[in-house]
Amino acid sequence: MAKIEDFLGRFFAALGHLFAPRRKRAVHPALRAITRPRFWGFLRLRKRRLILYDRKPLGPSFEMLDPERLRITQGPLSGWEFKMITEVSDDEAHVRLFREGREVGHCDLQRDAFEATVVLWNIVVQADLRHKGLASIMAFTAFRKMLELYTSASFGIRMIRLLKPKETVTRVQNVGIGVIARKLGFISDYNLEKILQRENIQLVHLVSADGDMPPAYRIVLKTFPLVLVAFVVDQDTAKPFDRQHPIYSYEVKPEIVENWVARRSIIIGNGNYLLREDGIEAMINHLATSELEADIYNTRIRPAS
Q1: How many other C-beta atoms can be found within 10 angstroms of the C-beta atom of residue 119?
Q2: Using an 8 Å Cβ cutoff, are 213 and 130 in contact?
Q3: Is there a contact between 297 and 147 (Cβ–Cβ < 8 Å)?
Q4: 98 with 143: CB under 8 angstroms?
Q5: Which residue blocks in the chain are alpha helix, DSSP H?
Q6: Stronger pLDDT, 14 or 222, i.e. the higher one
Q7: C or N: which end of the chain has fewer Cβ atoms within 10 Å?
Q8: Residue ranges per domain, the chain?
């Protein structure tokens, strides 16, 4: 009898051990860490943006004679020399042009701005030197400098100025900076396809040329932003039509404005511009001077959100 009890005791003990919950084996913290998917996140490469590098000029060609002195080699100022100084602080950046000791132009940028990492908000050129490429040279230099400093940056151009429909005087502004924005691939922060539909346009009024500024159009809308000041550019030259162009002699109806928007022939002079994904290739082609630079810029420029 004692043998049977001993046998049954061992049997049920073995049975209990067989069906008892197994204790988890201790895992070393380092081994546990590398089994987590998040640990291997650094191996996930961002999808590479494919671009076709085709260098395009932003303005007249020039050569650097030394780090602060340049000579223009093309255009109406060919052969002219300028001193160019770039100033960078934590919040701002500036490019200044000097001719014979006198400042003749400057370009101003804000760093880490609300709209984007880098925002160009002002370009000024001495009156008798406007429309000769100096603004493009300063913008070219400023954006390239920012791409040296940032490993990842978005870009914007600030030109917003709200107008009231009842205002009787409309000044044409930001022509040069608007042309630069278009060349570099920036697009209006406004949804032009929506707000410039013919049903939303109340009035299109020609604004006469003022000084060295070309004619423009004052477009009164039913919805925000209520008034846009726009000028039309030649598709071939990417510059505004001359004041003698026949385009300014006929009445502009809302459906014509729609056509301008579809062809990207219209530039808004009182609205912000942002560099979206579709425009990055254009910016790279106008700023990079080699395929190596194009590849570097391609990794550093990100679209504005």
Answers
A1: 22
A2: no
A3: yes
A4: no
A5: 2-19, 29-34, 134-149, 175-183, 192-195, 254-262, 280-287, 291-300
A6: 222
A7: N
A8: 62-153+274-300, 175-270
Q: Which two tokens stand for residue 213?
A: 């500024």
Please list the residues that pair with 301 across neighbouring strands: 153
Q: Which residue has the tokens 């020399």?
A: 81
pTM: 0.80
Higher pLDDT, 13 or 236: 236
Residues 67, 261: Cα–Cα separation, whole Å: 41
Tens-place pLDDT, residues 241-300: 888 888 888 889 999 999 999 988 999 988 899 999 999 999 999 999 999 999 999 999
Pick the CATH number of 62-153+274-300 from 3.40.50, 3.40.630, 1.25.40, 3.30.1380: 3.40.630
Return d(Cα 56, Cα 149) in angstroms, integer. Answer: 23
What was the pLDDT predicted at 14? 56
Indicate the residue type of 268: I
Return the structure tokens found at 205. 């009024």
